[in-house]
Amino acid sequence: MQNTFAMIKPDAVSKKYSGKIIDMVEQNGFDIVRMHKVRLTKEGAHQLYAIHKDRPFFNEMVDFITSGPLIIMVLAKDNAIQAWRDLLGATDPSKAAPGTIRSMFGSSIGNNAAHGSDSPENAAQELKLFFPDLK
Ligand code: UDP
Ligand code: MG
Q1: Could you describe the subunit structure of this protein (predicted)?
Q2: Mean pLDDT estimate for the chain
Q3: Which residue, 54, 53, 64, 55, is CA-closest to 115?
Q4: Within a 13 Å sphere around the CA of 132, how many CA atoms are in the beta-carbon half?
Q5: Is pLDDT of 135 > 90?
Q6: Backbone angles phi, psi at 117, to 5 degrees
Q7: Which atom of ligand 1 is nearest to the CA of 51?
Q8: What mean pLDDT comes out for the span 30-46?
Q9: Spatial distance between the Cα atoms of 44 and 66, rounded to a whole number of angstroms
Q10: Which residue ranges have their beta carbon within 6 Å of ligand 1?
């Protein structure tokens, strides 16, 4: 079993899609190890998105991710990091495969419903940032 870090973003939380997304998590064989509803501070957002600090949309991302509550989760499954990325679909919901979370619940490349760690290194870093007491 592997852990990954997942997040239901403020757009999906405010549209009341959390339950549908959590249902997909469970129906696709992930165990929910931890789950919290939180607000991110600007500082927390800067830490989460540190790898994107030089991208042109950085400030927009920070404003969006701090705009409302989000749901953070630790998910466990065999090969969880890749499996969760596959279930998310492409970053741009209009390019995400049918049946993926972003295709079903995302509305734009910025408001794309959910997040998932993209590598073991980033998963370790994101899990440590949000769930420092884990393991
Ligand atoms: N993003 C954006 N505009 C872009 C590219 C990305 O607003 O042109 C946002 C989007 O919400 C994405 C996040 O920045 O989920 C992180 O980008 P990344 O390329 O890491 O995509 P992801 O790993 O989330 O698929
Ligand atoms: Mg990414």
Answers
A1: Homotetramer.
A2: 97
A3: 64
A4: 1
A5: no
A6: -60, 145
A7: 20
A8: 97
A9: 9
A10: 52, 57, 61, 91, 109-110, 112, 115, 118
Distance 111 CA to ligand 2 centre (A): 14
Domains of the chain (ranges plus CATH)? 2-130 (3.30.70.141)
Q: What is the pLDDT of residue 100?
A: 98
CA-to-CA separations, 119 to 77, 82, 104, in angstroms, rounded: 15, 8, 24
pTM above the 0.85 mark? Answer: yes
Residue 42: partners with Cβ closer than 8 Å, 6 or more residues away: 62, 66
Beta-bridged to residue 36, according to DSSP, are 72
Q: How far apart are CA 83 and CA 29, in angstroms?
A: 10
Question: For the residues of the chain, what is the DSSP string, one character each?
Answer: -EEEEEEE-HHHHHTT-HHHHHHHHHHTT-EEEEEEEE---HHHHHHHTGGGTTSTTHHHHHHHHTSS-EEEEEEEETTHHHHHHHHH--SSGGGSPTTSHHHHH--SSSS-SEEE--SHHHHHHHHHHH-TT--
Q: Is 62 exposed, middle or buried (0-12, 13-18, 19+ CB in 10 A)?
A: buried
